[in-house]
Design a protein that fits this description.
The protein has 793 residues and is an alpha+beta fold. 28% of the residues lie in helices and 24% in strands. The radius of gyration is 28 Å and the shape is globular. It starts with 24 loop residues before the first helix and ends with a helix.
Amino acid sequence: MNERIDKPLGMPISAIGQPLRRREDQRLVTGRGRFTDDFAVEGQAHAAMVRSPHPHARILRIDAAAARAMPGVLGIFTGADCLADGLTPIPHSPLPATRTDLKLTGPGGGKVFVGPHHLLAVDKARHVGEGVAMVVAESKAQALDAAETVVVEYEPLPWVADARAACATGAPPVWDEAPDNVLVDTMFGDAQAADRAFAAADHVVKMEFHIARVTAAALEPRAALGQYDAATGRYTLHAGSGGAVKQKHEIASTLGIAPERLRVLSYDVGGSFGSKNRPYVESALVLWASQKLGRPVKYTATRSEAFLSDYQGRDLVTQVELALRKDGRFLAMRASNISNCGAHCVSLSPLGKGSALITGSYAIPAASLRARAVFTHTMPTNAYRSSGRPEVTFAIERLIDTAANEMGIDRIKLRRKNLVASKAMPYTNAVGAPYDSGQYEANMDLALSLADRAGFKARRKVAAKRGRLLGLGLANYVESSIGAPKERVEITIKPEGRVTVVIGTQPSGQGHETSFAQVVADLLAVPAETIDIVMGDTDIVSVGGGSHSGRSMRHAATVIAKAAPEMIARGKQIAALVLQTAPDSINFADGRFVSTASNRTFDFLDLAKEAARIALPAELKDGLAVAADNEMHDPVFPNGCAVCEVEVDPETGDVDIVRYTSIDDVGRCINPMIVDGQTHGGIAQGIGEAMSEQCVVDSGSGQPLCGSFMDYGMPRSNTLPSFTTKIVEVLSPTNPLGIKAGGEGGTTPALAVIVSAIVDALSEFGVRDITMPATPFAVWQAIQDAKARNARQ
């Protein structure tokens, strides 16, 4: 556990906590961003993929003769070619790597079989959209035309897309090594204690939910530009991602080369939310093709390709039950979660992270969970904003709403009775997650106050006069943030008055160039505008975990805080040389180096200029330059509460969100303007999933039915209200600055609070639940079904 810094290094806090405008926005909005597709090199060729039209099929023959003869075609590559050249599957590391993560195991406690993810399908295609060949040509149009003429002979095979069906007896196996399609089957909690509590309970409520698939719909579809330099034997890859260093090592492994032979450049990322955090096959393929053809090769996905082959999110089936005493006290919880991994196991983060938080914000004494992951003939799933937490938050919050309704207890009072108390912190929940800090009840009260719950009844009456149904939803949430444990920073203060900060975590739109500079500015007392944050180039950045799991700000600030005392100590030595005095006579106060032996003082920028004028000893030859490494395994648990009001038109099922309030405890907030923006975006993302987004697979053919924005509903500005958001800062004891995380809180409770509000609006019909996405038709159908049930009774 790290010592917390309340007032960094004894200096006044001036940049931390300030809503500084994002410095990166000027170049981004004026077309000077460095996104992958912005890069082009002389002589580059273009790649197009041949993709499987079948969810499961044996590849009998690939005939590319006609394609090879077409104008501009430079090469056509297949899975057999990959094997012949010794290319190996992508070495995904799907199991969480920190000490405190729940440890997922294979059936019977064995090793998890993750399955090989070849760059191109070799024997079988295992989902619609899987790449079976790559065409490279002089132009993109020529590559696409040639790809259309590649003839692939398939033998269609039985397939399964649904997670529940995949683990049923007799389901078609995705991999022969996992004949029942189950790759993870692990029990957590205390099953015996939970069973005893259920046996003694006065009331039990059971529900089952399927939180369906969604896709990230990144503004820039994934892209990759690969170059091979025959003179040096080095490869260069431009590809936006969540972590250049990690992808460098994974792709180098696939190519069978030493990591130092690969340079990855990952600058601005045009949308990710986790979907670009793991390598895609095209990144390795363009590098390999570049080496074989002696030409740079570029690939950019079309929007339809992105819908067919991006890593997708969610897809969890959960059966949950809650045992209660007659006074409403929670006694125990039981859950069975099944995560759909798709055809390849890319990440088990959604299952693992969600499993740790099944009890949510509540003090439930006993719990048991069966966590399973299964293969299906669908696109792989990956961590997606707030990986796994919106799903389990939805389950526990909907369970509580239903229990309150069945027992005739006010749902707010029921929550208040069972929330984890502030005085209980740190609190370990019933499956072992160590909540670090929080004021859950105060968050709920603040949310209700800002949402004006007291005026809700009056607003409901006004809506009724207009023929509308007004509903109020509430959801508490707690999420976890851990991420890759290692991080490194290198800080150099230059004579020309600039501070260079090289760091391994990198942004995908979160404003790191601004917020990281704020931390350095405070800790070293240098102006934020003099700080240059360097990220995303593996020839400069040697270590770093990238951006995922809300880790970036906490890990960056912690390693910067570790480096700052070393920089100050080095500054004292150099100041002593400049002033020709002893280092122990130098003090650093209020951002300046001072000595009783002289009336001269220096800030860091002054000192760097002075250092350049004198001869420094060997141990100080690099001047004001330090590096620090850190490894952090302690998780933090951001938390909060959301309240939503919706207005439903009972004639059409149309739902209008009229109010939305979000309280988010992010620990110390470095830049509230950025955090508020993240909250707004997170809420919009959750609303989209709750009300319109869904990756639909046809039950008869296995074909994905969402291939464009014409058939995939996205949230839009004219369908969203102005949000009321409030940042709460309960500092975490796990890191020097007390940071938790601020990028995912808006999404985590959104599914639950939207459905809670809609169900409340439909309560007069006796509607108990509604399946997401809550489209107008789904809401209208729920009303009609309820009317029919009521007529029969």
